[in-house]
Hints:
Strand content: under 5%
Largest sheet: none
Amino acid sequence: MSSxxxxxxxxxxxxxxxxxxxHRISGLLLACFIPLHFLMLSQSLRGAQGFEAxxxxxxFWVFKFGEWVLVILLAIHLAGGxxxxxxxxxxxxxxxxxxxxxxxLFAIICGLLFLYFAN
Length: 119
């Protein structure tokens, strides 16, 4: 027999669990992005020619979509982290569904603003 406590599956259908999963996944994906970002920046140390060649790769639509996803991930992770800080250090109790909804709205607005100003 397992010594782990039996988890009530109703907890996984709660909006706060969704916020928890989004915060964790966005953090993991951002952690995967960091080495790629440093790889691109390291090309500038080899000279302007190498950096310009690597920047030409970013003209493809896949990279434009990736930039948009990166902005969304950053917004989700930021909003989720602020929500957690408010829960941890605030004088209030509970998980506050309104904060979760505001976090989702913040991420959507950031993504739309990025699409608007990216031209």
